Amino acid sequence: MVPRNIYMEQIKAFQDNKLIKVITGLRRCGKSTLLQLFKQHLKQSGVKDKNIIDINFELMAYDNVRDYKQFYEIVRCKILTNEKHYLLLDEIQQVNNWEKAINSLNVESDIDVDIYITGSNAHMLSSDISTLLSGRYVEIKMLPLSFKEFLLFNHLPADYSVEDKFQHYLKYGSLPAVTTYLNTLEKAYIVYQARRFDIKGKEQLKTLSKFYVADTGIRNALMGYSGGDMGHVLETIVYFELLRRGYRVFIGKWYDSEVDFLAIRQDTRKYYQVTQSLMDESVRTRELASLIAITDNYEKTVLSMDKTYITDYEGIRFENIIDFILG
To answer: In whole angstroms, what is the distance from residue 16 CA to residue 319 CA?
Structure first.
């Protein structure tokens, strides 16, 4: 477990007071791990196991506990009179009307409890928590891993420089379970994975795949729609058009250069670069360079939104994206 010192210090600052400690944040950002780190801290401070009530409502053992009265009875029978207890309650939103049990446990005069809960859905928004817990709480908002934490969490190859690791951080983000998420979305056909293909070595590579959202409307709803991002939207449209035409689609790698798409169908290969426009000379030079570098004789095409009389350059075809899709 990666030490999350920023958040641990926040929790410890409110330990042993009557405020309910509420840990919020998106799923898989480390809330459950933080509770377990705090549990370690309690035990190292001399708190006995019987005085720590640790319940994760995502475990099958508590799958039938969905009513606040059931939840209350389970916790209440574990509490010993005249002894202090720490309640560590993970994913509390799984219990209907959970706040009724929490509020009661927090104010009952015959028990001494210090309560810590986590939650991650819409019912755990700050405005809702304030109403549900009558203001008797402190919220600890967790964020995904910082770059420093990322370096501790990820066991990247030993020969990676700190700059390499930073590029990995920029590309894949800092959610420890981001790969659990992508696999689930892929199985649901919401995203599709385009693997990289070593053109020279004629083999698929296992790293640095790209993921494309199946519908541009979903993509834009999640990421926003702006003219500055048009190149990526067009790339998504071309990717799925190639799939519709029966191609297996890869990201092409030729030594240190990369081509947007290598489309393979039976014995046929085609290379595609996708860009919004080639009118800017620097863009034109960059987009053509990757294709020019490839020395085999398969068809090469640059797709853009340009309307121009120029149809090829050094054997590389230029085609309008709309004409390509309708062709």
So the answer is: 68
